Amino acid sequence: MDNQGGQADSELNSDWSELTHECLTNVLSRLTLHDRWTGPMLVCKSWLHACKDPSLFSTLDLEVHFDSPTESARWWTPEFERKIDAMLRSIAEWSGGSITEIRVRHCSDRSLSFAADRCSNLEVLSIKSCPNVTDASMARVAFRCLKLREVDISYCYEISHESLILLGRNCPNLKILKRNLMNWLDPSQHIGIVPNEYLNACPQDGDSEAAAIGKTMPHLEHLELRFSKISAKGLALICDGCLNLEYLDLSGCANLTSRDIANATSNLKNLKKIEKPNFYIPRSVFHAERYGHWRLYDDRFQTDTFRI
């Protein structure tokens, strides 16, 4: 019995080891990136080779790993950035230029420039919360990834309006732009997690960015500018230049009034939804017992527009 069992185990192991490359990649395609990265890659050389097959890397989506109610201070460390950089560089190389979607956080100029040079078919780029991504790597993206239709550079404070100009001029298919900032009205949720010097570096040039968007991105349909320092003048520039807008998020834009928004958006015939700068109540108010009556307004004010 023991011999028969051992022979059966041997045959099973042999079957797996002798799978053709095509069969093995088919099996691996059913696993998540995390599962492939932590399991099959470590089995043997043939499995490692299969895990690097370009067909497995049409997308890189790490957002699910950042989808947490609270941020981790570890994400903002150099060590974590190096790990993300290593993963992005590896997958950009293994994809063989076939990757069309990248969604990561906390990468740097080094890995983003590397990816831009090798991912000319890229259509979606989301790099939220990247303190070391600058105009330098975004210029490479703009000149090499001409098929971009969606870009998310939220909470990337070293990216300026210059990058927006290059993206607008070189990426004619751009339909979705997300340029949200952290909640500077009530930064308490970030204190102790995000480095203070980074919190204090919140971009002040809202109107410069608005001018870049309005002048170079006429085909935009979806625009997010949460907690931007944009003024009525900047909003008017956007609405005059982006007549195809269907969705506009201005949550937390404290420099705008209802009248400013109404005047600027009056010519947007396709506009279906607009998120306005809700009346702001600091979180501390909700936790103060003497202001217990404010709890009645939880559903109205404690919405996702105030969660970064």
UniProtKB/TrEMBL annotation:
Signal peptide: none annotated. Residues 16-57 form the F-box domain. InterPro entries: F-box-like_dom_sf, F-box_dom, Leu-rich_rpt, Leu-rich_rpt_Cys-con_subtyp, LRR_dom_sf. Transmembrane segments: none annotated. This is F-box domain-containing protein. Gene3D superfamilies: 1.20.1280.50, Ribonuclease Inhibitor (3.80.10.10). It holds the Pfam family F-box.
